[in-house]
Design a protein that fits this description.
seven-stranded mixed sheet; Protein-Tyrosine Phosphatase, Chain A; alpha/beta; Rossmann fold; six-stranded mixed sheet
Length: 463
């Protein structure tokens, strides 16, 4: 088979491209701009071009796979739509690839990438044949995809954008959070919750749903005078982190020099003591609880789970340590929703008390910035210094009056400024940070290597 990808550089699209390539199919595609990810795809033997030119589309493709992030006005999309070339959304293809397998799907407004990556790592560490399609680059495997032709289990990140996760019919489901997001798609939080409820209902009757006890979906169901359990045919359990009353939870959290230790509490004698996560965020303890619960369902032993957790090196751009020395800590994080940013900042405060923490934030999408401007300002005000970059538009056109300056003006912090992406590396020394964080889901990652290089070569201790 020959597959053509419109928007091949997207994190979900590239995972599919890698899967088909490793399976032995022919793969090529288009993306608007080159990136480290597309360059890696090229290094893996996948042909990619960067100009919107229908003449570069092969004449013999069997299927075009596209992402909604690519505008339908794109010349290549228009060309393919006008021909008799089969065309499918990424989510449809992912749904088809999970049919006939025990799909483990992780959904949520945030937390799904790390949780799905951790599940995949635990299963692989337990020698359980597993394939995975992740929403980020696992540092353990150096990819967002792992393929095992003999796998019974397929781990996938269930993306709520454009209702993509409704293409999935999981055996094991996880819902990490249901905070409002993508309101440009759903119109209201209530509509978003209804989509999450439908996703939950699609869990196999012989399977198991694990839902965060703090999820607003639980409250939403109760307001409808029912419970989530009554809405579903599968077994349902709640999980949480420290101080949670959930069935699956963590207790006795201890942090020592960046190492996080905790006990895992579960019903039916499945509790585990003295588990360790290295160089991770405290909020990942909650994600680890969900991952462990799923891994136990799949047959991973206590010893395998302990070893798997201890060897988990994380996901790129998820509380990702880039520099760690006596002078400075530099953490890069994909956080782009107020709740995610708050969790990242709080984790840094917990790990590095009494340190000066400075953030560089690039808002993602005009619509999200408009929807959560006050919330962004509130969480960013908890930093000791903040640098705002211009909004990354992604698939959107500008909205009148919606700018980074609009958010910056609301931030209650005198140590604030607006900078272009190009200016960032030159001002790093002026920030006098003990802990520096880059935050955002746009193209801020393009300057991370330069910041890392600057800090490694030129850092002086701030007292």
């Amino acid at each position: 088979m020959k597959y053509y990808f419109l928007g091949i550089g997207g994190i979900g699209m590239s995972a599919l491209a890698r899967f088909f390539k490793q399976r032995g199919d022919s793969v090529c595609g288009y993306d608007h701009t080159a990136s480290p990810l597309t360059r890696q795809l090229e290094a893996e033997g996948i042909e990619v071009h960067y100009d919107d030119n229908p003449e570069k589309i092969p004449s013999d493709i069997d299927l075009c796979i596209y992402t909604p992030a690519v505008p339908k006005e794109t010349s290549e999309y228009q060309y393919i739509a006008s021909k008799s070339i089969p065309i499918c959304k990424r989510s449809q293809v992912l749904g088809e690839l999970t049919r006939g397998k025990k799909c483990i799907a992780v959904a949520g407004s945030h937390g799904k990438t790390t949780t799905s990556g951790l599940i995949a790592h635990l299963l692989r560490s337990a020698n359980i044949p597993t394939s995975a399609f992740l929403g980020g680059i696992s540092k353990n495997i150096g990819s967002n995809m792992c393929y095992n032709p003999h796998s019974e289990y397929v781990v996938v990140e269930a993306d709520e954008y454009d209702r993509s996760f409704l293409q999935l019919y999981p055996h094991y489901s996880v819902i990490t959070s249901t905070d409002p997001d993508h309101l440009d798609i759903y119109g209201s939080h209530a509509n978003l919750l209804q989509a999450f409820l439908q996703y939950a209902k699609q869990t196999d009757a012989t399977g198991h749903l694990f839902i965060n006890k703090n999820s607003s979906l639980l409250k939403h169901c109760m307001e409808g005078k029912t419970s989530l359990t009554n809405c579903l045919t599968c077994q349902t359990s709640q999980y949480g982190g420290i101080h949670s009353q959930a069935e699956y939870r963590a207790e006795r959290l201890h942090i020592d020099n960046g190492t996080i230790s905790f006990d895992y509490i579960a019903p039916n004698g499945n509790s585990l003591q003295n588990l360790k996560l290295y160089r991770s965020a405290p909020y990942n303890v909650e994600n680890a609880v969900a991952a462990i619960a799923v891994a136990q369902q799949c047959g991973a032993s206590e010893k395998q789970i302990k070893e798997g957790l201890a060897t988990f090196t994380g996901i790129q751009r998820r509380f990702d340590y880039r520099v760690s020395n006596a002078n400075i800590i530099y953490i890069d994080d994909y956080a782009h929703h107020p709740a995610e940013i708050a969790a990242s900042i709080q984790s840094a405060r917990t790990l590095f008390p009494n340190k000066r923490i400075v953030g560089i934030f690039q808002p993602h999408l005009y619509s999200r910035t408009a929807d959560f401007a006050d919330d962004f300002a509130k969480v960013l005000s908890t930093l000791d210094g903040i640098v705002m970059m211009d909004i990354y538009p992604a698939r959107e056109h500008p909205l009148p009056g919606v700018t980074s300056q609009m958010v910056l003006d609301k931030i209650a912090n005198i140590n604030k400024r607006l900078c272009t992406k190009e200016e960032i590396p030159s001002i790093i020394s002026e920030l006098q940070a003990d802990v520096l964080m880059t935050l955002g889901a746009g193209d801020i990652d393009r300057i991370v290597p330069e910041i890392e290089k600057h800090l490694t070569q030129n850092t002086t201790t701030h007292k």
